[in-house]
Amino acid sequence: MKKKITSFLTVLIVLIVGIWQWLNPSEFLEVAEPKQEQKQISEPTNTIDTTINEKTSQSIDDIDLENPPRFENIRVSSLRSVDGDTFAFYTADGKEHKLRLLMVDTPESVKKGVSVQPYGKEASDFTKEQLTKEGVSLVFDKGEVVDNYGRFLAYVYIGENSLQELLLENGLGIVRYVNAGGDSLVEELLTAQEKAQDEKLGVWSKKDYVMQMKNGYYRYNEVE
């Protein structure tokens, strides 16, 4: 008799569990492990050939600035330096256009309400000197060409030399503000930055001046 009761109870429990699983399937699903955290410093978002076409170099006055050609050298000749990572260029109609270097942040030297930061003047003087040389050209990446402040965003070349890389190699700036569509040459810039880091040049020579952020990039440990 006891065996029959035990068997009956076992069958009853199995039926109850089966009905409960049918009514509440989500509670019995296997819980997947969380995905591995993605690296903040990631591969550039290249989807097209980013080789700069020097043979099709055009003047800034020959292009549509609202939709400029990408990865082509665009010559500029009338310039005004602002600071290490910003300058102005002028078109034939006399209009001034501000431009900020893509992915490079130099210490502040003229920002209102901010004291001149270490190596800010050196970076500003370096950029000003480079812009006086022959063969200054702009190269636009595949993403946005204007930022929220109305400044154009581009790579800048002095002849065949990248102004961004020159600043980074000399420790006069850091790789920063890396955004999809404007990051095609980020690997080249990181390599230039690593050279200055290894040799402790410029901003990297001052202890605790540059600090690493959670996204893997750096910022100046100063009030900005």
From TrEMBL:
Q: What PANTHER family would the database entry show?
A: EBNA2 BINDING PROTEIN P100, SERINE_THREONINE-PROTEIN KINASE 31
The TNase-like domain, residue ranges: 72-206
Task: Report the InterPro entries cross-referenced here.
Answer: SNase_OB-fold_sf (IPR035437), Staphylococal_nuclease_OB-fold (IPR016071)
Keyword presence, Calcium: no
Organism superkingdom: Bacteria
Alphabetized UniProt keyword annotations: Endonuclease, Hydrolase, Nuclease
Q: Is Isomerase given among the entry's keywords?
A: no
- Name its species: Enterococcus saccharolyticus subsp. saccharolyticus ATCC 43076
Q: What is this protein called?
A: TNase-like domain-containing protein
Family annotation (Pfam families): SNase
Q: What's one GO MF term for it?
A: hydrolase activity
